[in-house]
Structure formats: C-alpha cells, structure tokens
Write a structure and sequence with these properties.
Layout (H helix, E strand, L loop, with lengths): L2 H10 L3 H14 L8 H14 L3 H23 L5 H12 L3 H22 L8 H9 L10 H20 L6 H11 L2 H19 L3 H23 L16 H13 L8 H15 L3 H6 L6 H20 L3
Helix pairs in contact: 1-2, 2-3, 3-4, 4-5, 5-6, 6-7, 7-15, 8-13, 8-15, 9-15, 10-11, 11-12, 11-13, 11-15, 13-15
Length: 320
C-alpha cells in the first residue's frame, strides 16, 4: 500500500489528523510532492479541506498549513509560494469576517505578485486572489442580515459564479431563461429576455466593458418591470416617472418598498448579488474606474455576469 493510498484511506475514515500528518510528511520529504510547486501539493490540501465539515475547523487547517510552511519547510527550502494557502484562508474567513478575509486575500495576492516577479510573467490580474478582491472590494458584513444570508452568498452564489468563470462554463442558459420568466412580469418580459440574450453574447465574446454595461441594463429592466407592474410603483418620492430612473435610483425605490413590507428581493444574498452588479455598472465611468484599487478584467466581468445568473436562479426559487 503506497502512502498516497493511505492518504485516501485516512480521508475515507474522516481521520483528518492522519491525513494531515501524512501530507506534511510528504512535503518534508519532497519525493512525491514538491513544496516549491503548488501544482503538486495543492490537490491534497484541497482534498483535506473539502472533507472537513466545520468552517472553523477548515480555517484552522489552512492556518496550521501556513505555519508549517513558514516554520518547517521554509527553514529548509527558503521562501515558498503560499498564495494557495492564503487564498483559501481568505475564502474560509469570508463566511465569518469579510474584513479579515480581505487581509488574507491581500497576502495571497502579494505571494502571487512575488511569483510573477520570479517567473518574469504578467498574469496577476487573472489570479484567483485578484478576482476575489475585485469582487468583494466594497462588500461588508453589514450588508447581510441575518448572518445566514452571508453564508448563502459566500457558500452558494459566489462559489458557483467563481468556479464557472474559472472553467469557462455558463450557468445553464435554459434554467436562467425559465427563472427570468418566473421573476419578470409578462408585460416587460420580452425586453428583459432580449437584453439577457445580448448580455450572454458579449460575455461569450469576453467583451468586459460591454458585459458589465449590459448586466446593468438587464437588471434595470428586471427591477423596472417588477416595480411598475407588480408593485404599481409609478413615480418616486419626487414625482419623477419611474421609467426615467437609473439602476441606483431603482434600488432606492426597492428599499423604500421593502421598508413598507413590500419586498422586491426575496433575500439579502440575492440583493447583495444584484447590488454588486450595480457597483460594477457605476465603475464604467472612467473616473470611477481610476479610483478602484482592483481594475476590471475579463475574468472579473465574466464572474460578475455569472453572479447575476446565480442570483436569478435563487430568486426564482424563492418567489412568494
């Protein structure tokens, strides 16, 4: 029986201590896996992390691995790339503390930046840490109430969107179309579906600015149809015809209705997803984009579009 077979046996028996010990032993010996190349060892760390059920235990695993690299491996091998470890520390922390997660993701990005310098490559804006930081730059814990909504956003909607962008996949277009049909009143459905068709087309072509612009236009169509036809909301508080309002103003009207007990969004996680679309739509102004720490990239735009699709699926499932 090989040691890697023993590793699988430990995981199958939920013996995470045994699996972790064997994994670290292999890292120290550097015969089967190379500690200087995360393409050889990350898969084993990911396997352990996936099998650990509790988030705090998963976070503790990545923290122990970080300390093992720093205190044991780097004394022997010198500096090793730990971007993968810090990235997963950030992702696990997102479920508990967004601000703390951002710190770990920044550390992951610094590791990626150093690796890029050593290799003489320029691909930093496509790193997972960069994309995540770009997406959550203006998301805070206070955006979710109750806390279960944050769990839903970061455990379901966000990972689904992120993974689809990595693997170049689309979230099932037919399911999305059915969701839109359920969400949008029939009077404005044709317009919403046409905008969604154009959005999908530019996203496939990797036209990042057009993707964000059309995502915002599509969401405007969805909100306008719901406010006007479902809630009979014809004007805002200033008497302005609702048809003349832009996306940010439509969100304000949705908030006012929610305060009166007429919810437009069925959950905070869906609302947070849609407001992320709004944030990126606002960034299209050159002055706004220049002020952003993390600039819009092709992969970020595709992930934002996937986040909208994920929100639509969840929205349709949670209609009253």
């Amino acid at each position: 029986m090989t040691e890697m077979t023993s590793f699988d046996r430990f995981l199958g028996a939920k013996d995470f201590i045994g699996a972790e010990s064997l994994f670290k032993k292999q890292l120290l010996e550097a015969e089967i896996i190379d500690p200087s190349n995360d393409r050889t060892w990350a898969q084993y760390a990911n396997q352990i992390s996936r099998e650990i059920e509790k988030i705090d235990d998963r976070c503790a695993f990545w923290l122990r691995l970080s300390q093992f690299f720093e205190n044991d491996l780097e004394t022997k091998w010198g500096h090793l790339h730990k971007g993968h470890i810090f990235f997963w520390l950030g992702l696990t922390c997102l479920l508990e503390d967004v601000a703390k997660a951002k710190i770990w993701l920044e550390k992951a990005l610094e590791e990626d930046r150093e690796l890029e310098r050593i290799r003489g490559t320029k691909n930093l804006e496509n790193s997972s840490a960069y994309v995540t930081l770009c997406l959550i730059e203006r998301i805070e814990d206070s955006h979710f109430n109750p806390d279960v909504e944050k769990q839903k956003f970061f455990k379901e909607l966000f990972p689904r969107s992120f993974d689809a962008a990595i693997f170049g996949q689309e979230i099932d277009p037919e399911r999305i179309k059915k969701s839109i049909t359920n969400i949008v009143p029939k009077e404005s459905l044709d317009q919403a579906l046409e905008l969604k068709r154009e959005l999908d087309m530019v996203s496939r072509q990797r036209l990042q600015t057009a993707t964000i612009s059309l995502a915002g236009s599509f969401l405007e169509s969805v909100l306008l149809g719901i406010l006007y036809y479902k809630h009979s909301h014809k004007t805002n508080s200033k008497g302005t015809d609702i048809h003349g309002l832009q996306l940010g103003e439509l969100f304000k009207e949705a908030d006012l209705l929610a305060a009166k007990g007429e919810k437009v969004f069925p959950s905070d996680s869906i609302e947070a997803s849609c407001k992320t679309i709004h944030l990126f739509r606002n960034r299209l102004h050159p002055g706004n984009e220049l002020k952003q720490k993390y600039k819009l990239t092709e992969r970020v735009a595709v992930t934002v579009k996937n986040l909208l699709d994920s929100a639509l699926l969840d929205w349709s499932k949670n209609l009253p």
